[in-house]
């Protein structure tokens, strides 16, 4: 299959591209910079220059592909509305290019905010609807296009996709711990996050592209619930820092309003249905094992 990948040189995309190539697929990766283009070319992928705002490039990539994996996101934590608008416009463009073809579109989504008081399930609908909602309501927008001949598959990622070189949420929290001289958790630290190793995430994206039926919601989750207190304790050991509780207000001061609030949330999710559907069994290290092994040494 000829697969167009957005976010191809990002943290998850740079694992998905070799996973697809290793399975015999051709890959065309969207590259915003010369460095990204060079890295993609070196991996054996074709390069399409452009970025998430270049709707013409997105349209061309999708029209010339047999499948699309959409992983790019602006992640503008200072102004989430910018990210939301860009995500919605990108998904509108990709689905329009794929309409009526039954070609697959695997798009990244998240498990946060899907359920309260229990792990989120694949059957839980996403409450984000409309252009002003989280991610611009792109998951629901894309799933609605199943009726118009797009084989949409939503890949709902755990809040942390971890591994050596990770620059996501755990790296932010580790960096804040270094700056403050203490590794912190919010309140009692009993709220927990689901997690997945990057290699397992990449394999599930490939399986979803190849096999998942139209309208499928996949949970890219290996560990259902890792308590944030245990995350803070593991970072404390790895960084040789004391560990203590902080208030929600202090978390926001340290990490900013978006990540500080998110760190205090309970983001648990099950992947039981995903595993049964695709025969996916995670084999990568756990989050705490990655932290202990030094995956965040320079944070």
UniProtKB/TrEMBL annotation:
Molecular function terms from GO: aldehyde dehydrogenase (NAD+) activity
One Pfam family this sequence matches: Epimerase
Superkingdom, taxonomy of origin: Bacteria
Location of the NAD-dependent epimerase/dehydratase domain: 3-212
Cellular component, GO annotation: cytoplasm
SUPFAM superfamilies assigned: NAD(P)-binding Rossmann-fold domains
PANTHER family assigned: PROTEIN YEEZ (PTHR48079), PUTATIVE-RELATED (PTHR48079:SF9)
Name of the protein in question: NAD-dependent epimerase/dehydratase domain-containing protein
Organism in which the protein naturally occurs: Modestobacter italicus (strain DSM 44449 / CECT 9708 / BC 501)
């Amino acid at each position: 299959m000829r697969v167009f990948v957005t976010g191809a040189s990002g943290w998850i995309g740079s694992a998905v591209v070799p996973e697809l190539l290793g399975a015999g697929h051709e890959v065309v990766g969207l590259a915003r910079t010369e460095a990204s283009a060079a890295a993609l070319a070196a991996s054996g992928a074709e390069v399409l220059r452009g970025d998430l705002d270049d709707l013409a490039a997105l349209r061309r990539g999708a029209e010339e592909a047999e499948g699309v994996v959409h992983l790019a996101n602006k992640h503008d934590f200072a102004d989430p509305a910018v990210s939301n608008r860009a995500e919605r416009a990108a998904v509108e463009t990709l689905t329009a290019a794929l309409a009526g073809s039954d070609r697959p579109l695997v798009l990244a989504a998240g498990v946060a905010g899907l359920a309260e008081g229990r792990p989120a399930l694949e059957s839980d609908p996403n409450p984000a609807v409309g252009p002003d909602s989280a991610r611009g309501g792109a998951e629901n927008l894309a799933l609605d296009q199943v009726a118009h001949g797009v084989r949409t598959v939503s890949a709902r990622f755990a809040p942390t996709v971890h591994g050596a070189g990770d620059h996501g949420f755990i790296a932010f929290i580790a960096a804040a711990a270094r700056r403050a001289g203490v590794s912190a958790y919010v309140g009692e630290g009993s709220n927990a996050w689901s997690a997945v190793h990057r290699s397992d995430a990449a394999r599930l994206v490939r399986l979803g592209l190849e096999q998942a039926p139209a309208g499928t919601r996949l949970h890219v989750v290996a560990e259902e619930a890792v308590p944030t207190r245990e995350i803070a304790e593991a970072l404390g050991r790895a960084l040789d820092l004391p560990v203590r509780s902080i208030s929600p207000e202090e978390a926001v001061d340290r990490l900013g309003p978006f990540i500080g609030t998110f760190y205090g949330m309970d983001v648990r999710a099950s992947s039981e249905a995903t595993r049964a559907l695709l025969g996916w069994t995670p084999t990568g290290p756990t989050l705490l094992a990655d932290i202990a092994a030094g995956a965040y040494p320079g944070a």
